[in-house]
Write a structure and sequence with these properties.
single chain; alpha/beta; Rossmann fold; 2 domains; 8-stranded mixed beta sheet; two-stranded antiparallel sheet; 6 helices; 10 strands; globular; purine biosynthesis; EC 2.1.2.2; Formyl_transf_N
Length: about 220
């Protein structure tokens, strides 16, 4: 069985979506560890409720971002993960951490990368007057929110949208495309060629999700 480690800072809704997919036997894997940089993160509560080992690692105990990342990287390596999943993890990772898990470190971002990278992507889309936004699952590289794209979902931006309303519409698809991407990776269907990612036997050219969802 494949093994996943999750890093999360907040409410843990994507973590819950992944747990649900595992319980429904759509993903043949286990989550062996959830780590958080926030003591009050709801993700830690979700992990505990599902009997998943979880830890809060306080960044204030470390003199530098590098020191923190070296420490958590060693904790993760002990789990021998097949995949490291960022699920609302709000810290910018150092280069050494990214190097440690190159090719098996993924993130979900609430925009259609390369648009609206960084924080408050939904707010940026509303304020910019974008007509479409969405979400992107991508491999993590040293350039923030700019790694090779696995799957994207398109969501319309309505004239009366607030940041909260657009965020909720995007979140609906986050909970579908993130478990789907994880399933594909753990089934060894993902081929990375430079910036281009191809899913073997997937259906391309579909909307609102490309490539098409298969299980979610």
């Amino acid at each position: 069985m494949k093994n996943i480690v999750v890093l999360a800072s907040g409410r843990g809704s994507n973590l819950q979506a992944i747990i649900n997919a595992i319980k429904e036997k759509k993903i043949n894997a286990k989550i062996s560890l959830v780590l958080s940089d926030k003591k009050e993160a709801n993700a830690l509560k979700i992990a505990s409720e599902n009997n998943i080992k979880s830890k809060f690692i306080d960044p204030s105990f470390f003199a530098s971002r590098e020191g923190y990342d070296i420490y958590i990287a060693e904790l993760i390596k002990k789990e021998n993960p097949d995949l490291v999943v960022l699920a609302g993890y709000m810290r910018i990772l150092t280069d050494k951490f990214i190097d440690s898990f190159e090719g098996k470190l993924i993130n979900i971002h609430p925009s259609l990368i390369p648009a609206f990278q960084g924080l408050k992507a939904q707010k940026k889309a509303v304020e910019y007057g974008a007509k479409f936004s969405g979400c992107t699952v991508h491999f993590v590289t040293k350039e923030l929110d700019n790694g090779p794209i696995i799957i994207q979902a398109v969501v319309p931006v309505l004239p009366e949208d607030t940041e909260k309303e657009l965020s909720e519409r995007i979140l609906f698809y986050e909970h579908k495309i993130y478990p789907q991407a994880i399933k594909w990776i753990l089934e060894d269907r993902v081929i990375i060629e430079g910036r281009k990612v191809v899913i073997k036997n997937a259906k391309y050219g579909t909307l609102p999700v490309n490539p098409a969802l298969e299980d979610f």
